[in-house]
Amino acid sequence: MGDAASQGQGPGQLPAERTAPGDSDLVRAARGLPVARTPVWFMRQAGRSLPEYRALRAGTAMLAACQDPDLVTEITLQPVRRHGVDAAILFSDIVLPLVVAGVDVEIKPGVGPVIAEPVRSVADVDALPPLEPDRLAFLETAVRQLVSELGPTPLIGFAGAPFTLATYLIEGGPSKEHARTKAFMYAEPAAWARLLEHLSVSAAVFLRAQVDAGASAVQLFDSWAGVLSAADYAERVLPYSRAVFDGLGDRDVPRTHFGVGTGELLALIGDAGADMVGVDWRVPLDEAARRVGPGYSLQGNLDPAVLLADRETIDREVRRIVQQGRAARGHVFNLGHGVLPDTDPGALTHVVELVHELTTR
Predict the structure, then answer these.
(1) What is the mean predicted confidence (pLDDT) over 133-158?
(2) I need a labelling partner for 74 at 20 to 30 A (CA). Which of 124, 156, 210, 342 fits?
(3) What is the pTM of this model?
(4) What pLDDT does 189 receive?
């Protein structure tokens, strides 16, 4: 599109913005400030949809790749070069803080994170090792390298929220019902509180390392919070997500909070300390703006499956979301969840160009 070309964007190039990372459209939109155009990035933009990613990752296990600063740097940069997105997000995994702390976790292809010794008792909670900041040197190196390479393009740091990490620890791996997790939450309230407090401290340590090394924004992923009622979330989860954001102290970076299936929780998710609330595809952005209130920006919320459709369908849905996003104080265009592996990379590039064309001030 013409706008992308005028900004010096195209395949093989990093976006040429007019501002420093801390004053980029991504950061400004998250804070509800005026922007030159609606910023765009995609959850899981670095990964299996890119042939260059698959080639680079060949023969390297996921968790090993996440701890190699040079691999992290290159993989994080790949979608920024290819798509001209307005932000990079650190290539990592939500279970990485557990791994670095010493928990035995394996990411099994086609399955996901698998915990060798699941947490099933009070003693198991108390035996969890803490995440020591001095173990995160690789992470700080990767972030510093990325900030140097990205120039004015902001880097988003991220962490998994306490509840979602608790589900992996208790279930032993991915789960559809999260029944063991909820049973533990109800039956062992004191141990549950200690577990989520432990995980909130770990997530805050992980985020602080990224921000102190130069990340311009952060996102907390509570992927499975949507399995909870609003009452349970408010009482048993919200205080610990708030503790993660509080753990950033006075670090001046915008904070995004995202979960899947969280339409009934949107106001509470914002109340955890976010500047911007991520919205999945189930709730239109204008309705989401009503639910969260005027004090928050919104991020989202194209259904990732739309990217597998024809261009006419993609364009129609992008235009709808751009229009509905105007109801919020600020809008960052994204998907309602992560990029699907079978997505044509060209469709992602097209979405970036279309959003920029539609919203350039």
Answers:
(1) 98
(2) 342
(3) 0.93
(4) 97
Give the residue among 285, 20, 56 at the shortest CA–CA distance from 147.
Answer: 20
Q: Is the pLDDT of residue 18 over 70?
A: no
Round the average pLDDT of the chain to a whole number and report it.
94
HEC secondary structure over the chain: CHHHHHCCCCCCCCCCCCCCHHHCHHHHHHCCCCCCCCCECCCCCCCCCCHHHHHHHCCCCHHHHCCCHHHHHHHHHHHHHHHCCCCEECCCCCCHHHHHHCCCEEEECCCEEEECCCCCCHHHHHCCCCCCHHHHHHHHHHHHHHHHHHCCCCEEEEEECHHHHHHHHHHCCCCCCCHHHHHHHHHCHHHHHHHHHHHHHHHHHHHHHHHHCCCCEEEEEECCHHHCCHHHHHHHCHHHHHHHHHCCCCCCCCEEEEECCCHHHHHHHHHCCCCEEECCCCCCHHHHHHHHCCCCEEEEEECHHHHHCCHHHHHHHHHHHHHHHCCCCCEEEEECCCCCCCCCHHHHHHHHHHHHHHHCC
Q: In DSSP terms, which residues pair with 193 in a beta bridge?
A: none
Residues 6 or more apart in contact with residue 123 via CB below 8 angstroms: none
Contact 217/30 with Cβ under 8 angstroms?
Answer: yes
* Residue 317 burial class via C-beta count within 10 angstroms: exposed 0-12, middle 13-18, buried 19 and up: middle
CB 274 within 8 A of CB 253: no
| pLDDT tens digits, one per residue of 296-334 | 999 999 999 999 999 999 999 999 999 999 999 999 999
Residue 19 pLDDT > 70: no
The pLDDT value recorded for residue 283 is 98
